[in-house]
Amino acid sequence: MKIADMNWMQLESYLQQDDRVVVPLGSVEQHAYLSLAVDMILAEKVAVDAAEPLGIPVYPAIPFGVTPYFAAFPGTVSLRVETYVRVIHDLLDSLARSGFKRIVLVNGHGGNQPAASAATEWMLSNPGVKVRFYNWWNAPHTLANVRSVDPTSSHASWMENLPWTRLADAPCPDARKAPIDYQRFHVMNAAQAKEYLGDGNFGGWYQRPAEVENAMWQVAVEETRAILQGPWE
Amino acid sequence: MKIADMNWMQLESYLQQDDRVVVPLGSVEQHAYLSLAVDMILAEKVAVDAAEPLGIPVYPAIPFGVTPYFAAFPGTVSLRVETYVRVIHDLLDSLARSGFKRIVLVNGHGGNQPAASAATEWMLSNPGVKVRFYNWWNAPHTLANVRSVDPTSSHASWMENLPWTRLADAPCPDARKAPIDYQRFHVMNAAQAKEYLGDGNFGGWYQRPAEVENAMWQVAVEETRAILQGPWE
Amino acid sequence: MKIADMNWMQLESYLQQDDRVVVPLGSVEQHAYLSLAVDMILAEKVAVDAAEPLGIPVYPAIPFGVTPYFAAFPGTVSLRVETYVRVIHDLLDSLARSGFKRIVLVNGHGGNQPAASAATEWMLSNPGVKVRFYNWWNAPHTLANVRSVDPTSSHASWMENLPWTRLADAPCPDARKAPIDYQRFHVMNAAQAKEYLGDGNFGGWYQRPAEVENAMWQVAVEETRAILQGPWE
Amino acid sequence: MKIADMNWMQLESYLQQDDRVVVPLGSVEQHAYLSLAVDMILAEKVAVDAAEPLGIPVYPAIPFGVTPYFAAFPGTVSLRVETYVRVIHDLLDSLARSGFKRIVLVNGHGGNQPAASAATEWMLSNPGVKVRFYNWWNAPHTLANVRSVDPTSSHASWMENLPWTRLADAPCPDARKAPIDYQRFHVMNAAQAKEYLGDGNFGGWYQRPAEVENAMWQVAVEETRAILQGPWE
Amino acid sequence: MKIADMNWMQLESYLQQDDRVVVPLGSVEQHAYLSLAVDMILAEKVAVDAAEPLGIPVYPAIPFGVTPYFAAFPGTVSLRVETYVRVIHDLLDSLARSGFKRIVLVNGHGGNQPAASAATEWMLSNPGVKVRFYNWWNAPHTLANVRSVDPTSSHASWMENLPWTRLADAPCPDARKAPIDYQRFHVMNAAQAKEYLGDGNFGGWYQRPAEVENAMWQVAVEETRAILQGPWE
Amino acid sequence: MKIADMNWMQLESYLQQDDRVVVPLGSVEQHAYLSLAVDMILAEKVAVDAAEPLGIPVYPAIPFGVTPYFAAFPGTVSLRVETYVRVIHDLLDSLARSGFKRIVLVNGHGGNQPAASAATEWMLSNPGVKVRFYNWWNAPHTLANVRSVDPTSSHASWMENLPWTRLADAPCPDARKAPIDYQRFHVMNAAQAKEYLGDGNFGGWYQRPAEVENAMWQVAVEETRAILQGPWE
């Protein structure tokens, strides 16, 4: 259930019977032909779909994350690591104050990894609260499904090209892009990266048939749901 | 137009003909019987409605703001001032890097006022970019309209009770609440504030007829649109 | 009573009978023909005058505040918002450690508003201490008095031209300046602002007769004193 | 000349002929029987007296410094080192923006030493501006004079007991206190330090005759003045 | 070559012919029966061995990293993420100032991952300098070698039990520990983690024969050396 | 005993009988003909030699300190004051968590003085733990010994030219350098400082006979050892 569809009194009731909550972590950044908000949209969608049958509330996604390497692509918003860590700390402080004791951060963007470190260090001063940082897109089953379709699938390829992220007026090529060279990419500055990446896809098919998409999404939702269920000890 | 409905290439095209952009600033916090996300929903909605005919892109709202006084109400998320200022700085740095030169922060929450200070100090080191911080809810025409309906209208009253923020399963009272005493409220700690505020409404009618709502919203959208148009010098 | 006129033993005695204290917040910045320290001088003076008959100690004013928009005027000192918030937090920590439980920040400069947010968030972790942030210059009675004399009075006009802030060798014009356009001013960078503002007065009479000044000051002192008296719950 | 006695236009004129400026650094903290503001008062007074014949402007003292070891004495205000460093950086940024190129920080409190480090690191990114951090009370000639009177003179002894810092209603003992043991003091926590220090004097005569005071002050003013004169290369 | 074996004049000469440099990143934390400084020792050793034939200078390792999950084991030192990011930024600023243009951070501890993010965001403001963050222990060839010996090898197992990290007076068991459950470990607080981990080994053989150790180390050194050689574009 | 020669179980045993620990503070910076790591090497060596007979564990030195004035000499790494203060705070938090109650920071570099302030302010929130900041090189007996050999000895002179810091391939001159003018040095920017300092020695004999070195070191080790022994109250 979305927090946006609840008021504080309803949440107060919920907290008398459960103490789990989900916050999706997004990013607004280049995703080739797809929406600039892919990571935000998918993190929120997978979280809501996973939480629905469990009745666990889901906060609106934090739209912005850490993505300096895409800074030269128009529209990209990148928070500095320090800023991001503080956002995570303040968020967790607030959730703990509300009475949540088991918190899942469903992350949609690789660059947001410092949130995992932030959550771990926050738990050191909040030993009574559990925080799980969870990358929905590279969890074992989801990743296995993606690779079974196309082992080179990556950023902005078909695995992120879903009904909620593609744009009516910006069709993706019916093609398969060769994977980028990560070793080279990692030492490029922002301008070099923009030139090197071209449209921004990191490799793999730009699109796959609807049934392939659906199967992947189904795995992702179920794997995320399992995380919400535990283990919590 | 929502940024979420654009890809980076489309935004690159836009930037060749215009350099304006909007970022809504929200808050997730108690709003009595209404959605916990009222300030986020309305800031984003008024921004999108205002920007639509001008073709100016609108980022997803930053959901969380500064709201320590509501900390005792479950669901409230409050960023510390330092954190919030950093988020604003990083956001503006990113937008300037993309090539935006005229940025409007459409704010939906009074506690987010430090973003105005953050924007002004940011302009000191970025003299070529203009940032306007804009509170849609207390702009002169909108405020006049609200007060003409009910001079005591405030937080969580009818002026925020709109089709996009009310909850099907949580009807608002058909009543008018007496205004709170702000002098007392401002020195209360979070626990005292929760007790004092009761349901959380700060005063005024909980609901008004649809035509009153619509008229208010119309004024707000037009006043916000005028801000996007200028002056910018 | 000024803290500067007390030693720690005297303050220790005071704390056995009262727990109120005042800290004035100033700014060193352009004030047209008047002293660069207007905001510091008046905040401290109104605080001392108000506190005198109540026997409440008053700290020396913090001279510097947040005023980036005046950065192009020589002499202006502006602290960044983050810095200022930290100063306020450290100050409040220190006062609470001394045993003060009711603290009034008497503020003389509009740009210092983030101190109000800082104080509120500080109270969240210090629920046993009350902090009131108080703008002496726009409190209701004082503002009403000022507007009754000249509705356009503003920064560096007669309302700040008092015996303690005017300079013997820099007489003010006997004139009334047209108000500035705030919408334009708020998106100007520092250099544009300096050019636009001319001498720096924001509008209104540069000077008024002594009896008008005195009457205004009397209202301000009494209104500030009332704040020191409460309510504190 | 005090900045408080100048307006921005006068300062603009000054900057066409000189680029030196002084900022006194104080502390509000226990000084035994003397004013809680000793370090602020003396730093500002010695700076103003030294600068007077040279026509160099002097800012109001920053009242608060770094003094955690006196935290248990009522009235003490201590900024954290990080806060203080930021204040110094922002101050220097502001002064450089005004056009000052030779800045003297006249410091009145030993605990403010991190300001020296802050100034040095600031110069690394501002190679065209010189900042001298100057402890007026332990400069060679002043210290020699103080020690010639009483080699054990220290915090809150006669060397700080001057017409501007003593309190009419709090006479100092006509006695000489044995010096404290610094090795022990440095590992005491705040509560232990308060108990150990008694009235707060660190050792030496509480008072000396007026001519001794005057002679010391004369040395201090002249030594400070020499610093303002250079060398600056 | 170790920086500790050079003076500034020798480094100045080096910089006229090459612009590469290495900084090892360590951690002081529990490593079961092995030295508390394993991560520091191995990062520095692999860096020095790799750099030797290339003549590239190697800084002393930063001993402390980010390791909050081991906080309950005596001896563990953990920097907060914010602190660590600042250390990395300051380090890179310093190296760039010296004239280095290709910098390798050879990391010995998984928790230090935020340094990778810090390096990437630093490159955004320093587009002329390349920084490669390199985990020597999970680079492809090294990891393949480790897994070929024992697929469950992990923290504090044989792969870190080398002549430079084992202690004469603390022999390791001749045994193979079952791997821990990472899902459970990641939501444990520090006290629970200490209890759960027992001696601290995460799984795998505690020791392997010298020739197995040597072969692994050889792979690691060569793979690290290859990184120093490029690609750098 | 070096922490690097202990595992966590051994340290846990130690903590049942003693609660003292040492952390050396170094700097990597120009030292004329000597190793760039002089301050790190000597702080660690004097700490280890002093602690040895007492059985007190010694952490690896923090290699980097605060040294902006040497920034123009290749190889120098300087942390900003804020960064350094955070490192010290995090370190002390970690040591306190391990159970250490008496901590000595053996400092080898004058620029690291803010660590003393950081330690003192840390004790304010950790009143049960004692931290002594100790400059081994200007402690009374050591300094007296150094000055008895050569009163002008300073940075990079014979007092730092020891078997562990000199380089086989970089012989020091057999000469005595005239002392620098500190007043001038302190207002120089980094480029001016590099030019002014020449080889980097601040004055005094570059080298002294082995027996002079040994005698000095003996005094330093014993004086440091006495500090470890107390007083601690």
UniProtKB/TrEMBL annotation, chains A, B, C, D, E, F:
GO biological process: riboflavin biosynthetic process
Any GO MF annotation of the entry: metal ion binding
Record key words, sorted: Hydrolase, Metal-binding, Zinc
Cofactor: Zn(2+)
Database matches in InterPro entries: Creatininase-like_sf, Creatininase/forma_Hydrolase
Domain of life from the UniProt record: Bacteria
Coiled-coil segments on the chain, per record: none
Family: Belongs to the creatininase superfamily.
Name of the protein in question: Creatininase
Species annotation: Serratia oryzae
Source species taxonomy: Bacteria, Pseudomonadati, Pseudomonadota, Gammaproteobacteria, Enterobacterales
